[in-house]
Amino acid sequence: MIRVGIVGGTGYTGVELLRLLVNHPQAEVSIITSRAEDGVQVSELYPSLRGFLNLAFSRPDVEALAELDVVFFATPHGVAQNMMPSLIERGVRVIDLSADFRLRDRVQWEHWYNQPHTAPELIDLAVYGLPEINRTAIRDAQLIACPGCYPTAIQLGFLPLLENNLVDPTRLIASAASGASGAGRQAKVDNLLTEIGDSFKAYASYGHRHLPEIEQVLGDVQTGAQLTFVPHLLPIIRGIHATLFSTLQQDGVDLQSLYEQRYKDEPFVDVMPMGSHPQTRTVKSSNVCRIALQQPQQRDTVVVMSVIDNLTKGSSGQAIQNMNIMFGFEETLGLNQVALLP
Amino acid sequence: MIRVGIVGGTGYTGVELLRLLVNHPQAEVSIITSRAEDGVQVSELYPSLRGFLNLAFSRPDVEALAELDVVFFATPHGVAQNMMPSLIERGVRVIDLSADFRLRDRVQWEHWYNQPHTAPELIDLAVYGLPEINRTAIRDAQLIACPGCYPTAIQLGFLPLLENNLVDPTRLIASAASGASGAGRQAKVDNLLTEIGDSFKAYASYGHRHLPEIEQVLGDVQTGAQLTFVPHLLPIIRGIHATLFSTLQQDGVDLQSLYEQRYKDEPFVDVMPMGSHPQTRTVKSSNVCRIALQQPQQRDTVVVMSVIDNLTKGSSGQAIQNMNIMFGFEETLGLNQVALLP
Amino acid sequence: MIRVGIVGGTGYTGVELLRLLVNHPQAEVSIITSRAEDGVQVSELYPSLRGFLNLAFSRPDVEALAELDVVFFATPHGVAQNMMPSLIERGVRVIDLSADFRLRDRVQWEHWYNQPHTAPELIDLAVYGLPEINRTAIRDAQLIACPGCYPTAIQLGFLPLLENNLVDPTRLIASAASGASGAGRQAKVDNLLTEIGDSFKAYASYGHRHLPEIEQVLGDVQTGAQLTFVPHLLPIIRGIHATLFSTLQQDGVDLQSLYEQRYKDEPFVDVMPMGSHPQTRTVKSSNVCRIALQQPQQRDTVVVMSVIDNLTKGSSGQAIQNMNIMFGFEETLGLNQVALLP
Amino acid sequence: MIRVGIVGGTGYTGVELLRLLVNHPQAEVSIITSRAEDGVQVSELYPSLRGFLNLAFSRPDVEALAELDVVFFATPHGVAQNMMPSLIERGVRVIDLSADFRLRDRVQWEHWYNQPHTAPELIDLAVYGLPEINRTAIRDAQLIACPGCYPTAIQLGFLPLLENNLVDPTRLIASAASGASGAGRQAKVDNLLTEIGDSFKAYASYGHRHLPEIEQVLGDVQTGAQLTFVPHLLPIIRGIHATLFSTLQQDGVDLQSLYEQRYKDEPFVDVMPMGSHPQTRTVKSSNVCRIALQQPQQRDTVVVMSVIDNLTKGSSGQAIQNMNIMFGFEETLGLNQVALLP
Q1: At residue C251, does pLDDT exceed 90?
Q2: pLDDT for the residue B251
Q3: 3-state helix, strand, coil in chain B (%, to 5)
Q4: Which of D183, D193, D198 is opposite residue B191, by nearest beta carbon?
Q5: Which domains occur in chain D, in start order?
Q6: 3-state SS class at B216
Q7: Which residues of D touch B181 (CB under 8 A)?
Q8: CA C32 to chain centre
Q9: Is D149 one of the annotated active-site residues of the chain?
Q10: Which ipTM was obtained for this model?
């Protein structure tokens, strides 16, 4: 049984960590911090946890956190990097769900996040926590930078094509859509039910912060990867659907077999039969990414559809998957929920 | 490990049984029947189960079912009663999620369901499967009649008041609302997203079939119980919210303590603090019923709010709770999921 | 053609006034104020108005407003009363959509709204703008206090019963539900899609501010009217559904005829056939209140269901209905839209 | 005042025609047919029309329809073509909202719709009813083939690029999403709220029936136009959002000016400022198509976002726009509703 801390537990990735951890057989949540809610029972803020967790929010305390086996950061970007040096120095292992250590290029990070990075010396220490490409490195990492939600869905969708140089890497297109929980639990007019319910729109088409992260990972796989990325906002709570377009440069490849082979040992990637259309509801509350392929009219544009639950495989579930790998637990431990359908 | 069969597994109570049973440590689903889907993999109809269940629908076969430890009926009313005599005779234990054996009065059943009852001799054998009032009888029962979804929420909300004769039993009012999954998975124009989305209405106010069931149970607790019951249809998938009104006949009773005492040993009833407003989302996917009390303006009308997930505590979860009691398992086994929030 | 001003036009009642007024054949919107958006084109904030309105928000200016024929206040409570004396003194007619002048009892107003009333001398001047009971007084009024949304639905539902002393006035019950636009366009976590989508709850059951307003009007009709009022929050944008319960004190009254007679000349009240269940979507975007009756099991509890669009008949539409009456226009002018269905 | 008939008025395009026509100052609905609902008042099926329309459904009668000025077909594909010869012969003008006469190539029609075409001799008579490219021909047409909903949004989005040969016509991509009303009012499990609510998916990516229609129109504009078209299903009622991708073949073109010029005289196309993100709710219930452009990272992929209400500009509103042109009315007559927002 390992002892776990969560920094910044009042948001949706925080409560999702708790939903999964309170039933995890090898982990116990010992500390959960929030300056704003210091002293308040977690189950008062989230009544879904009544009866499962008897713990109050506390102010973040480095010494107390350093006593634990692992600390999750479920904070907005810019927060984790401030506490990180003290924690790393004290030897505790850290899984950061925020964007602070995802980009290897500090200048790029500072450009996209529009602020100085306060712990650049730790960037090289961070391991990008996508188990499907980094499992070995994750095992021994002290600092995990968990992927963003869009990057998880889009990278898993494109990987087999790029790993095999099958498509033109310079004209990748991702038209993706996210449930509203991706925007977090912040008091903003833009996210009111009355503003986004019964409607649909694109946003940040000029450049979403997940773009450089995706291009970094895809560029590692195939040089020169460039993506046109248009995110959209769905009037649903959970779920990401990525529709990916790319131009085949070879004929006669059995794409379906390629994908099935690539992911056959992955516990959380499910390649559906050709012609399927994965629904976000088939992964709601689960850690699975479901993928399906299509080659419309047998032309040379291949379409990949990839769905995840943005709060689970897109965030907190993937963070726990990383934890399981880091501590030698079975990778699926505590993560075998069946999606909630209907 | 017990062996389980499900008759009529293509509907929402069927897939909810499967969601819970595939992770139940003491139960294994061996047979799941559907005439229409005979031979089709369950996970083809419900991709959420891909990787969890390798089983195809089969035609119902009494002999095969009789070999099992327990058989669930997840069928529309009128179906279970036809197979029931053969199964009961063969000694198998049965948990019926449908309405077939809920009413003790055959004439009343035939009136409300507008068809003859074909196994009236088994009505007396059936135990009403609400553990909060019938736990002992459930333990040894061969045939369980699981409560309806509205009855579960409304009965648990009224019980402490009626058990203590605190209110006028002849003027009980329930204004309740259900998510659309309560109507099942049937091809009906009335349940299209385009018909019921972004809208709200009452329905069946002239007399819903759950009315006699509720009055039967409440009448057992306090003679003469009469309910005005108006159900409403919510544009959500899961969840029932019952708002109950009754007239206090005594002053000075500490209702909050009364409720807390009544349910303090119940694993699946959560009495929230006075003044709370339980949200259906705090029980989504969980087997919990959350209840809160209010006495507006300190007048003599007491308001009880009671929420459940209609597919879990209102149906399949409660059925498994019954199974756990019948087979001597811990009552919460396989049912300790945290509600999915957000 | 009259010239119209709107004070506080950035909220939902403001944009609803604009939706209706830009197509009103006898009214022209000349001024729309907002301190926060001073100088911003209205159609920038509300792109639905692109091509319909070429007007920018301006800071409120009493002298400019006083030049107009009528000024609408679409402000939170507490705002209208501050500018009201200056406007009234200058002779301009005012239609206040807020709660400032709805309650005749200043002490009660200050209790429920928890602040001093700054223009108590104008309370007696205000005419309660429910045309179905006050049409004559509205015609010559200088200051109209438009009813709240819940009060409109609930009062229209109860009126015929109380006007004829048919029910016990001391045990009236209203279980009502509102779309989220009733909470306005404010940045609050509580109203995020992620908090209230796919869920349902009661709120303010201890005492909603519309309670004294409803009891004031119903008490005028029948002495001693007392209401238990439980509002609920629907995961829809527009619409109120009120389910009303009361105890009949007479037998043999033809309630259906009574309602039809009472409202036969009302252009915006539609009594549906006995046994109907009005859906909120049948009034979405329209100024109609639809009402249906039910007497379940022929017992002595009568159920009335009443639906409106909270932003139209519940607010801005009714305000324009008042304007039409005040200026001698046909009462339905500019208000004859068919509800948006589906 | 012209006299109007509607064949097949029970579906969503039928009720949308009625919503708009009952308030049209120059049109009167005289006949509305439905075999299934023969004799039933229209307002019984659609209570939103109570008070607006006193007309019952009748069985289709060619002679009676031929007496009218114009007949709308709001039927599934395959129906209009059967009655069309008799009506055309009798000289009545017809506006067909279905797909029967959209494709000029009979063989292609029969391939995509998988049935013989029964009135191929009328295909050449039909004018494609997209006013933005066909206004003159529409004026004198006897038979209008109204565009599909996806084609309207996608064609208006691509037109200025293709008319000016600015992009590679062979690699056009449309990732589009539609509200559920696009699937019509049919009793299908797939369209239940419980199946498609709170979820998102692509569908028909192998080939949607609107694909040949779009390629026909775009191919007329620029030879060789080929489209990869992936439609998605939104859990909303009304609205289409098309996100279009194409590869620029020229530098330095001011795309924003180009679009603004192209549509400056179009009453129902609104080009928003560069960098905008049109929301479907800004066109809900209105006949407007809103378009915005983006060139992410200044690379050579141009993104066009185009939104319409699928039942209005995507179907019934556009049909009435055609009617206005055909009968010499002002093109916007009866179509100037402001979108319903919120």
Answers
A1: no
A2: 87
A3: 35, 20, 40
A4: D193
A5: 2-125 (3.40.50.720), 149-310 (3.30.360.10)
A6: helix
A7: 194
A8: 20
A9: yes
A10: 0.97
